[in-house]
Amino acid sequence: MATRYETVMARKGEIMKRALGMDYAEFERSPIAFDYEGMMSAHGYTLERIRGIQRSAGVGGTPLLELRNITDLVRSYAEPGYGARIFVKDEAANMAGSFKDRRASMSIHVAGEKGFAGVIAATSGNYGAAVASQAARAGLKCIICQETFDSRHVGQPEIVEKSRLCEAFGAEVVQMTVGPELFFHMLELLDATGYLSASLYSPFGVSGIESLGAELAEEMTALTGAPPTHVVCTHAGGGNTTGTARGLKRVGARTEIVSASVDLSGLHMASDTDFNRKSFTTGHTGFGVPFATWPDRADVPRNAARSLRYMDRYLTVSQGEVFYVTEALCKLEGLERGPSGNTAMAAAMSLARELPSDATVVVQETEYTGAGKHHWSQLAFARTQGVEVRCGDPAENVPGKAIVIPERPEQIRAQEADLGKLHRSYVRNALKHAGEGYQPTPEDLVFMAEDTNTSPATIEEMVAGLRAG
User: Fold this and answer.
1) 150 phi and psi angles, rounded to 5 deg
2) Each residue of 125-138: pLDDT tens digit?
3) How far apart are CA 25 and CA 430, in angstroms?
4) Which of 239, 302, 264, 301 is nearest to 397 (CA)?
5) Chain segment 286-295, per-residue pLDDT in tens
6) How far apart are CA 386 and CA 403, in angstroms?
7) Cβ 282 vs Cβ 125: under 8 Å
8) Is the distance from CB of 329 to CB of 70 less than 8 angstroms?
9) Model-level pTM?
10) Is residue 416 within 8 Å of 312, Cβ to Cβ?
């Protein structure tokens, strides 16, 4: 006899088709390829329409700030003639305090337009608060599913705070311990309520972030005479990189896209013992690498967030470097912001050091901060979980064991991830999920080349190499 879990999971396709209000099957081309651009445009919203929807929802139009003191600091230790100008898009000024409001505003608009009575989202990050906030404005019911606790019922302060914020906006919050049940419970709730799935990875959600890329390109052009030479995005599930890059392209900007994650190598995100030892909810390699190399691991049949299509470089920074930069931003620029955007800020300071002084680097998000997100609160909690916190060389940082905060800004040195290795991993996953013995067609090779920003010849070579073992 099938268990309740098996019964619900067997109906996954049927439940999600109704809950997303779209049929992904019409975009499928093969076990590997699908019509990505067709899927992204099927919702029918132009960039101008998206901006109009967001203006009505109180989202977007956030300040672009030049960080002159941080730039001066970087130039004080860069080689002569080096040290790019650093800017930040202050997305904390959005309704619920992060760029996720852009994504949520589109999901809520679609829910209202299609006549859904409410929405459900599975997220422990800022997206929950954004969906709850937008649902409150639209008069829709809202349920947020969160992984909040480990098996001792100890919750990470940042996530517990987000529960309170979602509840303040009127949402019902379903709190769970870490494990594989999150998606199962979300499916059960979608089936029982008939609500829209406000998935992080839907085409309309990711399209909502395109306004951010377009906005910062236009504002930089007005301020400096040209779009930014580089944009740094904190990278988790891939939507931030994907949406921002697509927005930049839509307005003709030829900007290098740099993704950045906190290096949490060695920690397992679904591990009960690792859950409270990571300090950061999502913008880390535990999400960034798996979602880059296999985006369709998401809660939708085909993920709209496909970061390798747009990523020119992928930098990692340590926990200690992010905490250092968080405090530097407070002390030098008067901006107290949460850790997510400051992951990109740490990478941006390292990147700016290697660029000429006429280059421009934009960190494209900040997030709100509060009691649970404050860096001192995070460090105090890390100590209670047995993590050593000290000053020293950030190269000595060990995820889950030691957070080493730099003693000087010149010690901040982002590490370059090997994109070729990520591309090979993506191709390996695509072949694995296509089924044993599946032979990629020419259309598959083109699709995988587009999905990795490489060429069909490169993909063909990788396939041959993987098949040869």
Assistant:
1) -90, -175
2) 899 999 999 999 99
3) 18
4) 264
5) 889 999 999 9
6) 11
7) yes
8) yes
9) 0.96
10) no
